[in-house]
Write a structure and sequence with these properties.
- The chain has eight helices and eleven strands.
- It is α/β, with parallel strands linked by helices and 290 residues long.
- It has one domain: Alpha-Beta Barrel (TIM Barrel).
- Helix 2 runs parallel beside helix 4 and helix 2 crosses helix 8.
Length: 290
């Protein structure tokens, strides 16, 4: 019993640390109206545009996006602030928005983070664990986009610009190799039993969660599905593991967050930001999505 209580205390301490020590408030949650929140999704940022690539935004375009949001009066918030809003009625700013990056490319800390910091904004980077500090795909010699290591991102987490989310340790597969079982994101492999699938997802999730806690000192509350692929079973497993927020990819949409309703934080919609979305279109995009 004492060991169980001690473990729960450690988890609670890590959660509060990662969520900025938001304290409960004596508020009737049913009296607080829902809040609409848009989540933007980025991947790689590069100095120049890349033709026909929906996952790369140039530095100038990204800066213009952030400038447009800033000038329109939007305030970036962390997912922990959304959790606090749901659990305790913690007030959100009048125009809240969440910025996310998937995969954890080096450009996120070298290009995006300084721009976010300049405008007083924050973002959550959902990292793939096996790729930390690597420029090759998994355990191969296939060249891929460079990913940041923990030392590179740690200062940005410490100053509050970046938050870290979970994008699996090694279930974000791109290439299929001979004699290697294929898994589509976190979904079951062919002929894999439900128990085998559950154990595989738990092992992968816990491996990266422990690494994030050791390297960054925060408790994982956000999980972004690779390719947006999910199932009823994966949602149940992740919730058992203590995940409070899950992120999908398609379709794009706006999220209605309800105080007292934790389910409103699961399978949240995002809008993929591309080079073709011009800065002056962002505000119109937000209005359309509402």
């Amino acid at each position: 019993m004492r060991k169980h209580i001690a473990q729960m205390f450690i988890v609670l301490t890590l959660l509060l640390t990662s969520c900025n020590n938001v304290a409960p408030t004596a508020i009737n949650l049913s009296e607080i109206p829902p809040q609409e929140v848009l989540i933007l999704m980025y991947h790689d940022i590069r100095p120049e545009p890349v033709a026909d690539n929906a996952y790369v935004v140039s530095t100038d375009t990204f800066r213009s996006h952030i400038q447009q949001l800033h000038d329109a009066g939007f305030t970036t918030i962390s997912f922990c602030k959304l959790i606090a809003f749901v659990d305790y009625g913690y007030p959100l700013p009048s125009h809240p928005i969440v910025i996310t990056f998937d995969d954890g490319y080096r450009s996120n800390v070298e290009i995006a983070a300084p721009i976010l910091y300049e405008f007083g904004m924050t973002a959550t980077i959902n990292v793939v664990g096996v790729s930390r500090g690597s420029s090759v795909y998994r355990h191969t010699d296939i060249i891929t986009i460079p990913h940041f290591d923990w030392d590179e991102v740690r200062p940005w987490v410490q100053n509050g610009t970046i938050h870290i989310g979970h994008h699996t340790y090694d279930m974000h597969r791109v290439h299929q190799f001979p004699n290697e079982p294929w898994r589509s994101g976190v979904l079951p492999m062919e002929n894999e039993t439900p128990e085998e699938h559950k154990n595989a997802l738990i092992a992968d999730f816990e491996r990266l969660r422990h690494i994030i806690q050791a390297e960054i000192g925060t408790y994982v509350v956000v999980f972004a599905y690779p390719y947006g692929w999910y199932s009823t079973e994966t949602e149940a497993i992740l919730q058992e593991l203590g995940v409070r927020v899950t992120l999908r990819y398609l379709p794009p949409g706006i999220n209605t967050i309800e105080p007292g309703n934790p389910d409103s934080l699961f399978l949240m919609y995002r809008v993929n930001m591309t080079e073709e979305i011009w800065p002056q279109d962002i505000f119109e995009l937000l209005i359309i999505e509402r």
